[in-house]
Design goal:
It is a single chain. It contains two helices and 17 strands. With 282 residues, the protein is mainly beta. The chain has one domain: Jelly Rolls, CATH 2.60.120. Helix 1 runs parallel beside helix 2.
Length: 282
């Protein structure tokens, strides 16, 4: 427990330095992005859609057209709460994940009101092969992606917690969704969301290069009356189909696992990465 606490403290301290800068640390080599979506097909990705078997891409919900990874509902008569997720083949622990997305078209008939221009990036998720056939969402942390309605504010890169919870400022947060401080993105514009995930210590959300949320200690919902759950050190990554058509033109990752046991090197790499402001080009 002492070693874990000491390492977590070092990681958090390193991250704070990464955002304030430190001239005494030598620059790191540019980390390389790995493309999880190849722009051609669904290679490496597998769907799990509610009420259907693992790997059944029911009604061609997930597809690739014109170089875009899409979720579509043109073969649906109505939605009927058939929430779906498209899982990447590999689980990750320490990483920077990025996705560029936009909402298009109209919501499918029968889609719930809250799911209008709504998608999500699930991370630290469960193995989809362990999901029940009628399970709506994997147990996971979710960076909720929302598009504006044209009326009022509607932030994106919020946090939702199906089967999970987290801590912030030393307090356990159990509410299902927590808003970020991002601006609203109306219309069909492209948006870039990045997630800095450091196992079970720290998570930071960014939108178009701006930090919009941070929190600590992602964990499962507690059992047997406990307040704290089991810490989530790693898990699957997936994108959703929640009834509104969505395009993804890029899903990419920088795996930071090799720096996980060296907070100083991790700090240097994160400093290098976050010194650049990456904004979605329209």
């Amino acid at each position: 427990m002492y070693k874990y606490a000491k390492l977590t403290g070092l990681l958090l301290a390193g991250l704070l330095l990464a955002f304030t800068g430190d001239s005494n640390i030598a620059p790191a080599a540019d980390p390389k992005w790995e493309q999880l979506f190849n722009g051609k097909d669904l290679k490496g990705w597998t769907p799990k859609i509610r009420y259907h078997e693992y790997a059944e891409n029911w009604k061609n919900t997930f597809r690739v057209e014109n170089g875009l990874l899409q979720n579509r509902y043109d073969q649906y008569e109505k939605f009927d709460e058939t929430y779906g997720h498209l899982f990447y083949k590999k689980a990750y622990s320490h990483y920077l994940l990025a996705a560029e997305y936009r909402f298009v078209g109209d919501q499918v008939k029968g889609g719930p009101g809250w799911a209008f221009r709504n998608n999500g990036i699930m991370f630290h998720g469960q193995d989809p092969q362990t999901m029940k056939k009628d399970q709506d969402f994997p147990n996971s942390m979710e960076a909720q992606l929302l598009g504006g309605t044209g009326k009022g504010n509607r932030s994106t890169a919020n946090l939702c917690t199906p089967g999970t919870q987290f801590e912030r400022d030393g307090k356990i947060i159990t509410q299902h969704c927590t808003d970020s401080k991002s601006k609203t993105f109306d219309g069909d514009q492209w948006v870039r969301v990045e997630l800095l995930v450091l196992a079970d210590s720290l998570v930071v959300h960014y939108v178009n290069g701006e930090e919009v949320m941070r929190y600590e200690k992602p964990q499962t919902d507690p059992a047997r009356g406990e307040k704290q759950g089991a810490f989530l050190k790693s898990g699957t990554i997936s994108i959703q189909s929640e009834s509104h058509p969505t395009d993804f033109r890029k899903i990419e990752i920088i795996d930071l696992e090799k720096y996980a046991k060296d907070p100083q090197k991790l700090k240097t790499v994160v400093d290098k990465l976050m010194s650049q402001k990456r904004v979605a080009v329209q």
